[in-house]
Amino acid sequence: MTGDICSAAEAFATRYVSLWSSQDSSSLTKIAGVAQQVASRYRPGFTFFTNGQVARFESQAGASALIEKELRAAIEAGLGAHMTLKALRSQQISDTSALCWITFEFHPAESSGRQNWTFTNLYGYRAETQGASAGFEFVVRDQEANEMKNSAGNVFDT
Predict the structure, then answer these.
(1) How sure is the predictor about 1, in pLDDT bands with cuts at 50, 70 and 90?
(2) pLDDT digits (tens, 9 = 90+) for 44-80
(3) Cα separation values, 138 from 6, 55, 80, 114, 115, Å
(4) Which of 104, 117, 123, 147 allows an S-S link to 83, with CB 3.0 to 4.6 Å?
(5) Strand 42-50 to 135-140 pairing
(6) pLDDT (tens digit per residue) in 4-40
């Protein structure tokens, strides 16, 4: 069973990252759609942990609003929001859950004059259970927030 949940988690994570690697993620006119697609990968009660701050969303709409706000801030700061998958690993926690370490490579807009950077977020994946679709239940994103702050100032509220 270990391979099954880890394979499912890694396939899910790869599809998730593909949303961030779309050029739409750096377009002010398209970020609302990207934010909705990203949030649709989150299960009810999804929680962001960021440098000791916690934001919990009972609905995908709440998570989508935060994602859109942060995308907009990154774009308006001149960085854009284009990210690709650098590395991925998972570890089984139970038959229906796994931890996923996703290392992103952030590709700043050329006009920013900044170099690419990497960061790793830790996600909790849960398979389809109790009527809820498979998805992420939480993310620990300290590295992401810290790297973004170092490059563009504070674009994260949480």
Answers:
(1) very low
(2) 999 999 999 999 998 889 999 989 998 898 888 888 8
(3) 16, 10, 24, 30, 29
(4) 104
(5) parallel
(6) 999 999 999 999 999 999 888 888 999 999 999 999 9
Task: Give the chain's radius of gyration (CA, Å).
Answer: 15
Q: Give residues with Cβ within 8 angstroms of 131, minimum separation 6.
A: none
Cα–Cα distance measured from residue 63 to residue 42, given in angstroms and rounded to the nearest whole number: 8
135-140: strand order across its sheet: 53-57, 42-50, 135-140, 117-126, 97-107, 82-94
Q: The tokens 């939480």 sit on which residue?
A: 138
CATH class of 2-152: alpha beta
Give the C-alpha distances (Å, rounded to integers) separating 97 from 8, 9, 100: 10, 8, 10
Any idea which residue has 């989150």 for tokens? 42
Four-point Cα dihedral 120, 154, 62, 28, nearest 10: -90
Task: Determine the Cα–Cα distance for residues 111 and 119; give it in Å rounded to an integer.
Answer: 21
